[in-house]
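User: Fold both of these, please.

Assistant: Here is the first one.
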Amino acid sequence: MEIEVKTYMTVNGRNISSRQLEVLSAINRLGSKTAAAKELGISPPVVQRYMAQMEDVAETRLMASTPNGTELTEMGLRLLEIADMMECRCTDTREFTISCSPVTEELVMQAVSNTKVEASIIVSDDYTNIRSLKQGMSDMIILDDPQLLSEVDDYEWLDVGYMDMIHVDNGPSYIRYRYGAQRIAYEQLELMGVKYSIDAETYLLSDLMDSNKSFFVDEYLLQRKGLKIKSATDKRLLRHSITAVYRREVKEITRVLRYLQSKHMI
């Protein structure tokens, strides 16, 4: 069975056809309306008409004449960029893909290596990974924050373990790490009636360690770096589940799930 998905673009409430986008793409590649017409098997006046129609819809110029030929304007290039991205998302030629955060990156790499699953691994934050799953760019995502399951309630999911966070208390000024279930940690501060302010944010573990500010970080990340730090708050109060979310359970997902569960995360 062959399945093909087609999309169309809407600009200012009006449609731009795939044929018009083909003309835009040919002009961009060839730098000439005449060359584009020849490649597409249509006449130059037809190319001009397609471009005029698109510029009418976009309400701006999409191409400009230069001493070297015809070039697309910034808006013309933007339309083409979006069309290319959408076409890429509508194909299913990529390999099996798992998205996770730096918190679980090493676990996912171990799972892929030990199960011999051929996969691409994308490392980003929970929100970006959820979007990747919904857009069909990922087959499985590993969520750090269980509250975000409400964003993916149409998908299958399974808790594969738990992690504890470490609270480093250097006073009321905090630096926030971009990854992990930080929401749970700061909610705990509020439950305890602690007054605090988040005065910085970082993607890097090293920034946390060098900041002299207070912060929360998953204990697992510290262990990977050979660091052992006593938590200022009971780690059990900062515990959060690690959840695998996926569309349906295929053989690759089954193997990865079994491996993650076998690690017996706290």
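And the second sequence with its predicted structure:
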Amino acid sequence: MSTDRPMRMPVRSAALLAQAGAVLLAWLIFETAVFFGLLLPLWAIAVTQSAAALLLSRLLCLPVWWLPVQALFMPAVLFAVQLDLPSGYFLTGFILFWLMFRSNARERVPLYFSSQATAEALLTLLPPNRPVAFLDLGSGLGGLPAYLSGHRPDSVFHGVESAPALFGISWLRLRKRTNAQVRYGNLWQENLAPYDVVYAFLSPEPMPELWRKAKAEMRPGSLLVSNSFTVPGMTPTRTLSLSDPRRTRLLIWTL
């Protein structure tokens, strides 16, 4: 079954359009109320804008994880304005946010952390009788490569991360390990061909694209493992259901 999707507006453009449309709608409602002699309180305008941003985000098919961001954006802005803090605080907050979440909008991937149960389950998927090359797409703080490399010194474990702060932390964490490393870069530019196992904990949005990339690049017999998110129309070869608090499911495809 084909997994091709119709062309859609880029996520960042859709999010900006939803916010702009919501601001316009809230302004029109405010002006209409003023015309009839009513002065709406600021909180009512903020709630209206927030609801409109949420509705427009749904209409523009933004990923589900964007919805709370869209709904809370304007109330958060107004709350920050009410605090009357020096501008340096906002600049610092923006820089920290950029360092932590720079990749989210571009790669359509929120920040998730794999559980200990996930690391243990992945260890059981590695062939025991030969060295393995493993890649973690969006490796975050490097916890997974660190755990696996400690248990399989005969194999190599790589991560790729595009958020500067997360990359820096994981690089420091792995710098003394001979069989684990993290690279700074975009996961979509990573060549999957050298790897026996590729692990991804992304989001529903990029999964069809990841599947096409895996089919084009990964070798026959290699494994693509997705934490929680499936590929539409593609039945996994195997599914592992874990007993961690998140009730993680690992969906495994043999290429």
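Residues 1-7 have pLDDT under 50 and may be disordered.
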